[in-house]
From TrEMBL:
<dbReference type="GO" id="GO:0006099">
    <property type="term" value="P:tricarboxylic acid cycle"/>
</dbReference>
<dbReference type="GO" id="GO:0005759">
    <property type="term" value="C:mitochondrial matrix"/>
</dbReference>
<dbReference type="InterPro" id="IPR001017">
    <property type="entry name" value="DH_E1"/>
</dbReference>
<dbReference type="InterPro" id="IPR042179">
    <property type="entry name" value="KGD_C_sf"/>
</dbReference>
<keyword id="KW-0460">Magnesium</keyword>
<keyword id="KW-0560">Oxidoreductase</keyword>
<dbReference type="InterPro" id="IPR029061">
    <property type="entry name" value="THDP-binding"/>
</dbReference>
<dbReference type="Pfam" id="PF16870">
    <property type="entry name" value="OxoGdeHyase_C"/>
</dbReference>
<dbReference type="InterPro" id="IPR011603">
    <property type="entry name" value="2oxoglutarate_DH_E1"/>
</dbReference>
<dbReference type="GO" id="GO:0004591">
    <property type="term" value="F:oxoglutarate dehydrogenase (succinyl-transferring) activity"/>
</dbReference>
<protein>
    <recommendedName>
        <fullName>2-oxoglutarate dehydrogenase, mitochondrial</fullName>
        <ecNumber>1.2.4.2</ecNumber>
    </recommendedName>
</protein>
<comment type="similarity">
    <text>Belongs to the alpha-ketoglutarate dehydrogenase family.</text>
</comment>
<dbReference type="Pfam" id="PF16078">
    <property type="entry name" value="2-oxogl_dehyd_N"/>
</dbReference>
<comment type="function">
    <text>The 2-oxoglutarate dehydrogenase complex catalyzes the overall conversion of 2-oxoglutarate to succinyl-CoA and CO(2). It contains multiple copies of three enzymatic components: 2-oxoglutarate dehydrogenase (E1), dihydrolipoamide succinyltransferase (E2) and lipoamide dehydrogenase (E3).</text>
</comment>
<dbReference type="GO" id="GO:0005739">
    <property type="term" value="C:mitochondrion"/>
</dbReference>
<keyword id="KW-0479">Metal-binding</keyword>
<dbReference type="GO" id="GO:0030976">
    <property type="term" value="F:thiamine pyrophosphate binding"/>
</dbReference>
Length: 971
């Protein structure tokens, strides 16, 4: 039998039980001989081993094979603790989880007996791993095992040996194996106690004052407060200036009051029914508001070292993990605007529940963004408040993995499991997490294993589903009781000293409670430093032109259509850029992609940041954009929009193909857009219907965030939409869903006079189905050129990207009087495009007014030209929400004898019709042009599927609806 080669290239730290068989000593002897002949022939770790073990240089005689074999067995035992010690760690404060210690932690497995416990072993080789906390190269096996148990099987269980990076593992080993629990100074313990008292007393105070109120208190995990405060202090000392926090409702009020430092009187006032912000009483706008444990805030607070750090807690709904990517996006934006290229000064901290961390897919989507070039924030600290039960579901029913945090192993993140009753262990784990993140710029997880003392919320009855657990909890002391008893036993703090802290805390809580009775909160100014001067819905914002001077358009157009002379472009791409250059030169035939690039370029030239993100956005799903081109020889990338202005800063324009995520990436871009209004942030779906994958962001954040939390965003969402016979999955962007979530009243026409109009400001968002490149140019620029921000949802085209009729003249982009886009109000986005025959103010001979939106217009117009239907007018409603009532009234008056038809491609129960019908009827009644019964519908009949999957059926349906729209009374 042929012997396997000696493991010369295997690092010592990666040894397994393979080396415990009876012949391993032979291989070790061969390995030693190889080392003695040439130290470079073995892995560096073996070189260090033999040097430390023998105390001699190579080529000197070594110790016996038996002694080396024994040492190797001891090293394998050490490694077993490093890998699996966490399984034996004392993590459950309730003692309910009885885990069997791993067999590989048993010294007998490695041939050691009780007789070996007091034998001394040479362990100098372990200096590299950090095992020695004192300079003693020889220790007894008993002492070694005691240190291993202390390091790996105490109140903290470490998972880090899955990390493939040797330097990272060694960094962790050193800190884990040299840490001595309960080694804090008296002063440090006093600080920890003070923070724990605050966290505990806060919950007790709320429970006493508002016995029946839901608050999702922190009882059972009060150690989170001193842990988070230690994390913040440590991060600040390491150079962090700003931390963005996201968390669910459990413990949120406590974190707001004791960590972020939201005034306690403000929190207490929110518990008092009927208290409303002062500006509401004056008739101001605050939207719907939200329950107190969903609200966010931001404050500057001092750290123990005297440094000030900015903390912001992002508002979020009850979808527990939906806020994760929002926080990461906001953090990335902070890093961009503060030029934090090294990602040292701005950091994210996410808190999770155990059930949601393992059960919610957006957790993985967010983790997966952590190291992507245009999405990384240099690492996030994750803290899991591990109740050991998700609402009523036991861990065995809520996950398939041993730990709720196992998903983080996919990202090679270290995981620190810590007993939530041991406040000093929690503080240490949080401090080490901060050090890891600041040193390695990578994610880290702190899993605080705790419990809920009062169930899911304070009025819940947990004994329904966890009777055994809650019998134990009933008699279990609080973490504060445990810590106070510990300090008293060791004589670190006297009882009277502890009592003084309690009295101080209670005095402040009572004082703040009294102040809350007369406290009238003011609406939190949602406009941070960057947002100064921006208006809320109650403040009129003037309209602005969005046209650009012709010479600027020409110059920028040349910049975005020019590739470097040494660049070898694909011949098809080269032709595309040549055609674009021709469009700019002649000023005619500007297509969709060129119009978009011009909008981006002009905004960049004006000093705005532009970011476009989504799946395959660099090229564009339909191979139309080509914002980034690839050299066919070198593979290098070139982006013309990165060279719009002289010395353009990095990332001023960012276009980035994202991971195959909708929920996570849209949430990221939403968070990014909220940081600074002087930015155009766009997310594009690969196909419009893919937005289904991020419906929570649309429902809970984008459509209602300003109403609930007074937070504005100008995020642009591009959703390819249009019926081209591509089946139900690639036709509809579910336009009806976005319109259904619009909050305008269908039966009330708002003030439409231009100088008084606040229609868009008072609406929750804008929904468009734009049909010309010029109008797309203007709607993008309009997002920036006004004094407020609203989300913009664009039903983007597919076949119109190359449709020969879907072209614009460059004169429609400029701001010169007399050109096609200029009217008495200047150059702006056209909310409605009237019939192209340029009819007079009154056209009594027109028998049919067809209103439509989007791509179907071009098919209607083609049919109209084919049949010569001069008595039919076609108007395009480019802005569906909010409805342009003034322009609809104008067109209804223009055609007093015309039947009014709404034509769409989508089924009757989908598309714009359910939204537009009552609003069109309201407009018709207002100008005495009939009523709801007089409105005609032309489109597909109601359907469960959005479209047919058969090309022939699609073609027949499309032909029929176009003909019916124009000629129904002639057929």
């Amino acid at each position: 039998m042929q012997k396997p080669p000696a493991p010369r290239s295997i690092p010592l730290s990666r040894l397994t039980d393979n080396f415990l068989d009876g012949t391993s000593s032979v291989y070790l002897e061969e390995l030693q001989r190889a080392w003695e002949a040439d130290p470079r022939s073995v892995d560096e770790s073996w070189d260090n081993f033999f040097r430390n073990f023998t105390g001699k240089a190579a080529s000197s005689p070594g110790l016996s094979g038996q002694t080396i074999q024994e040492s190797m067995r001891l090293l394998l035992l050490l490694r077993a603790y490093q890998v699996n010690g966490h399984i034996k760690a004392q993590l459950d404060p309730l003692g309910l989880e009885q885990r069997v210690p791993p067999q590989d932690l048993n010294p007998a497995l490695y041939g050691f007996t009780d007789a070996d416990l007091d034998r001394e072993f040479f362990i100098g080789v372990w200096r590299m791993s950090g095992f020695l906390s004192e300079n003693r190269p020889v220790q007894t096996l008993r002492a070694i095992l005691r240190r291993l148990e202390q390091a790996y099987c105490g109140s903290i269980g470490y998972e880090y040996m899955h990390i493939p990076d040797r330097d990272k593992c060694n960094w962790l080993r050193e800190r884990i194996e040299q840490h001595v629990p309960s080694n804090y100074s008296r002063e440090k313990q006093a600080i920890i106690l003070d923070r724990l008292i605050w966290g505990t007393r806060f919950e007790n105070f709320l429970a006493q004052k508002w016995t029946a109120a839901k608050r999702f208190g922190l009882e059972g995990c009060e150690t989170l407060i001193p842990g988070m405060k230690e994390l913040i202090d440590r991060a600040a000392d390491l150079g962090v200036d700003s931390i963005v926090i996201g968390m669910p409702h459990r413990g949120r009020l406590n974190v707001l009051g004791n960590v972020v430092r939201k005034p306690l009187r403000h929190i207490f006032s929110e518990f008092s029914a009927g208290i409303r912000p002062a500006d509401v009483e004056k008739g101001g706008y605050t939207g719907s508001g939200d329950v107190k444990y969903h609200l966010g805030t931001s404050y500057d607070r001092p750290t123990r070292s005297g440094k000030r750090i900015h903390l912001s807690l992002v508002a979020n709904p009850s979808h527990l993990e939906a806020v994760d990517p929002v926080v990461i996006g906001k953090t990335r934006a902070k890093q961009y605007y503060s030029q934090d290229v090294e990602r040292k000064r701005n950091m994210a901290v996410l808190l999770h529940g155990d059930g949601s961390f393992s059960g919610q897919g957006v957790v993985y989507e967010t983790l997966h963004l952590s190291d992507l070039p245009n999405y990384t924030t240099g690492g996030t600290i994750h803290i899991v408040v591990n109740n050991q039960v998700a609402f009523t579901t036991d861990p065995k029913s809520s996950r398939s993995s041993p730990y709720c945090t196992d998903v983080a192993k996919a990202l090679n993140a270290p995981i620190f499991h810590v007993n939530g009753d041991d406040v000093e262990a929690v503080v240490h784990a949080c401090a080490m997490a901060a050090e890891w993140r600041c040193h390695f710029k990578a994610d880290v997880v702190v899993d605080i294993v705790c419990y809920r003392r009062f169930g899911h919320n304070e009025i819940d009855e947990p004994n329904f589903t966890q009777p055994k657990m809650y019998q134990v909890i009933k008699g279990h002391p609080t973490s504060l009781d445990i810590y106070e008893k510990k300090l008293a036993q060791v004589g670190q703090l006297k009882k009277e000293d502890i009592a003084r802290v309690h009295d101080k805390v209670m005095a402040i809580l009572n004082e703040e409670f009294q102040s809350s009775k007369d406290y009238i909160p003011k609406t939190q100014d949602w406009l941070a430093a960057y947002w100064t001067g921006f208006k809320g819905p109650e403040q009129l914002s003037r309209l602005r032109n969005t046209g650009v001077k012709p010479e600027i358009l020409k110059n920028l157009g040349k910049a975005i259509t020019t590739l470097p002379p040494t660049f070898t472009a694909h011949r098809a791409i080269k032709k595309v850029y040549e055609q674009r250059a021709q469009m700019i030169e002649t000023g005619e035939g500007v297509d969709w992609a060129t119009a978009e690039a011009l909008a981006f370029a002009t905004l960049l030239a004006e000093g705005n940041h532009v970011r476009l993100s989504g799946q395959d956005v660099e090229r564009g799903t339909f191979s139309h954009r080509h914002a980034v081109v690839h050299d066919q020889k070198s593979g290098e990338k070139y982006c013309p929009l990165n060279h719009v202005v002289k010395n353009q800063e990095d990332e001023m324009f960012t276009v980035s193909n994202s991971s195959l995520s909708e929920f996570g990436v849209l949430g990221f871009e939403l968070g990014y857009s909220m940081e600074n209004p002087n930015s155009l942030v766009c997310w594009e779906a690969q196909f419009g219907d893919f937005s289904n994958g991020c419906q929570v962001i649309f429902d809970q954040f984008l459509s209602s965030g300003e109403a609930k939390w007074l937070r504005q965003t100008g995020l642009v969402v591009l959703l390819p939409h249009g019926y081209d016979g591509q089946g139900p999955e690639h036709s509809s962007a579910r336009l009806e869903r976005f319109l259904q979530m619009s909050d305008d009243n269908p039966f009330v026409i708002p003030e439409m006079e231009v100088s008084l109009r606040k229609q868009i400001q008072e609406c929750n968002w804008q929904v468009m189905n734009v049909t010309t490149p010029a109008n797309y140019f203007h709607v993008l620029r309009r997002q920036i050129h006004r004094d407020f921000r609203k989300p913009l949802v664009v039903m983007a085209p597919k076949n119109l990207l190359r449709h020969q009729a879907c072209r614009s003249s460059l004169s429609e982009f400029n701001d010169v009087e007399g050109h096609p886009g200029f009217d008495k109000q200047g150059t702006r986005f056209k909310r409605l495009i009237k019939d192209q025959n340029n009819h007079a103010e009154v056209e009594s001979g027109v028998r049919r007014l067809v209103l439509c939106s989007g791509k179907v217009y071009y098919e209607l117009d083609e049919e109209k030209q084919r049949v010569g239907a001069k008595d039919v007018a076609i108007c395009r409603v480019e802005q569906l929400c909010p409805v342009p009532y003034d322009l609809l009234q104008r067109e209804l008056r223009r055609y007093p004898n015309a039947d009014v038809v709404w034509c769409q491609e989508e089924p009757m129960n989908m598309g714009a019709f359910p939204y537009m019908a009552p609003r069109l009827a309201t407009a018709m009644v207002s100008v005495e042009h009939g009523s709801f019964e007089d409105l005609k519908y032309v489109g597909r009949p109601p359907s469960a599927a959005t479209a047919t999957g058969f090309g022939s059926v699609h073609s027949r349906e499309q032909k029929e609806l176009v003909q019916k729209a124009l000629q129904e009374d002639r057929m």
